[in-house]
What does this fold into?
Amino acid sequence: MTTLFYLFSNVFHIYATYQFSNVFLQKKKESAKSDIVLFTLYYIINSCAYLLFDNRLITILSNIIPFILIFLYYKVSLFKSLLSAFVLCVFSIVVDTAVVAIQSLLNINSAFFDEGFVSNIVLLTLVNIIAKSYFKYSDQIVKLPIMYYITVIFVPLGSIMVGYFVAKDLNVISLILSVIILLMNIVILYLYDNLVNMFSQQYETDVIEQQNKAYLNQLHLMQESQMKIRFLKHDMKNHIINMQSLLSAEKYDQLKDYLAETNDYIYSNNVIIDSGNETIDSVLNYKLAPLENNSVEKSYHVVLPEQILISSFDLNIVICNLIDNALEALSLLGENDEKKITIDIVYKQGYIKILVGNSFDGIIHKDKRTRKNDEINHGIGLKSVQNIAEKYGGLLKTDVSDNWFETSVIMYEK
It folds into this structure.
């Protein structure tokens, strides 16, 4: 029975090791079959070494060597492979030692503890926390909510307590219950991870939809501008005759008015920003269009090259979130309040600086959170901006003075 307990417990130990490897390895989806084969062999080697030799050193080596070989198979450098194996070994030893110490201190006598099920639950929990916090994936759009960490901590703790009471003895019932408890932990973590991924994908979809609307708006502006230019070219002969007539008659004021009218005709569309970077211009024109026919004092300064070595998708997330927050703050002001917005986006050699400032009602939380109803999505937006800034080695900074709120973001080209 002890052997059966070990074999089932070791399945979960190898699974925790597999999850640990995912922290360091950037594997493709096609690698799933390879993972199954490699970690099955890992399980067989490790289990046989323990059962046949019953030697601690051999058992440790049977954990480390296959792990290193798997890393080398995925073309990871020898140094990183050795480092990963060392970290895994240290983690396992620390967890086992801590569990044994607690078991001895509290005088716990339970097969659930003795046969390594508790150690595997703790190891799996730590791996998930590390994978989702310290080793953040570069394409992760949103930070995980605190509820994730509460779930990751309290579900295993509850499982350990239940396991202690229902799996005390070495028998078939205890084995089945122990396996079920561990499976429940894995399933809960798996489902919650999928929920977080779905939420992140939905957020990404919303951003893409907003970006597409901005591109469509920019296309309409360009088509309108081109159409007016064609009309102007068609009537250019008549315009030249009229201007020559005014010039000959020395009617300079009328000529000036005529030229101004012609200029207004050409540029009488909704092109607000024209920096030359079509991607950023389209987003800004789309977002700032609602401000054109109201009393908001506007100041825009956008100097960008056509191409920037920063993802357009990431730039759109940053710009859209900052402008949305500014527009929301302006909407909360009264009719007699001063309304002002400044946008300064400048590219310098190797980095881009985005600054959005706006007047607001002076009411703000200590942690600089919004007061609007959609506070959850607002928080996610700011976290997304911070994540993206950090992704490009930059930073997000906010400044508040009197009734003025300013947010600046620096992002370095990759």
Remarks:
- Residues 135-140, 372-379 have pLDDT under 50 and may be disordered.
